[in-house]
Write a structure and sequence with these properties.
By secondary structure, the protein is α/β, with parallel strands linked by helices. It contains 11 helices and 13 strands. It has a 6-stranded mixed sheet, sandwiched between helices. Strands 4-3-5-6-7 form a 5-stranded parallel sheet. Strand 10 (206-209), helix 8 and strand 11 (232-235) form a beta-alpha-beta unit. Helix 1 (9-19) crosses helix 3, helix 2 (35-51) crosses helix 3 and helix 4 packs across helix 5.
């Protein structure tokens, strides 16, 4: 029987940080973050969140474009036994506010570019919501993420059972208001195991996260699967078809998640058939059906 502590998603990061500390977990705008650095930052951020009142089982919201701090925040929340909650940055301020209030979020980590949206969404909530900005120095009324990081001292990672909630993902609300889907630590562990077995992922794989990390596509069908095996993920701040093709050709990435609309944008590039995309071994797709002719063209191109 496995111990409860084995199920905490932070424990996966800690394992690789001990085993392969110098391996890159992310590459973002040319800057590499190692597994050891990510574990250290996440523990320090967890300590800062705890000092500001975030406790086990509480919700830490994320409103951010893709960046390493996005993953750091998820790990930091889980370190405390708290729950990470990525929010769709395409939503309007009233929708963001609904999710923050419905989830009873205790903290919000925000991208600098999204602060105007967050300011509008959190009007009147400032007193009970810790608002942290990825940028340094932080905008007025916000705390910088870097300033939140403190020495964790004797604060140990929380012991979490498989059924404890790892993450909240709000649905689009097709039948009324959005609903918070509870993903447990066991949900994530078994999903990762299934992907590792099915796709044969190893630490030698190189992923590209080019869709939004607030969505399970880029976050779970690429990033968390590869972190589970101690591999590296290249992160693009936002999707750009030409930049994706350039990246795949230059970095020789082996796996990527692409929604059909993203595939169409890539295949519409005038020179895509002349590019060397042969390194890509696994394309994970979803969201809508992929027409057979498009699949056949992808097979010829990649």
């Amino acid at each position: 029987e496995t111990t409860q502590a084995d199920m905490n998603w932070f424990g996966v990061l800690a394992h690789h940080a001990t085993r392969t500390p110098d391996q890159a977990i992310t590459v973002f705008r040319g800057e590499t973050t190692t597994y050891a650095e990510m574990a250290e930052r996440a523990a320090a951020l967890a300590a800062g969140l705890a000092e500001r009142g975030v406790a086990r089982g509480e919700v830490v919201a994320l409103l951010s474009y893709n960046c390493p701090e996005f993953l750091e925040t998820v790990f930091a929340a889980n370190y405390l036994g708290a729950i990470a909650m990525p929010i769709n940055w395409r939503l309007a301020a009233p929708e963001v506010r609904y999710i923050l209030e419905h989830s009873e979020a205790k903290a919000l980590v925000c991208d600098e570019a999204l602060v105007p949206l967050a300011d509008e969404a959190t009007k009147g909530l400032e007193a009970r919501l810790l608002r942290a900005c990825v940028a340094q120095p932080a905008p007025e009324g916000w705390t910088s993420l870097a300033d939140l990081r403190i020495d964790p001292g004797d604060l140990a990672p929380a012991t979490t059972a498989g059924d404890d909630v790892h993450r909240l993902m709000y649905t689009s609300g097709t039948t009324g208001h959005p609903k918070g889907v509870m993903l447990t630590h066991a949900n994530l562990a078994w999903k990762n195991l299934a992907h590792i077995v099915e796709f044969g992922f190893t630490s030698a794989d190189l992923g590209l996260a080019c869709g939004p990390l607030y969505h399970v596509g880029a976050l779970d069908l690429t990033t968390t699967s590869l972190i589970a095996v101690g591999a590296t993920v290249i992160i693009h701040r936002a999707f750009d078809a030409a930049a994706v093709v350039d990246e795949l050709e230059r970095s020789r990435a082996s796996t990527v998640w692409l929604a059909p609309a993203m595939v169409n944008a890539i295949m519409a590039l005038p020179d895509v058939d002349q590019r060397d995309l042969s390194s890509v071994r696994v394309i994970i797709n979803g969201g809508e059906k992929m027409p057979i002719p498009l699949i056949e063209r992808i097979q010829r191109t990649f």
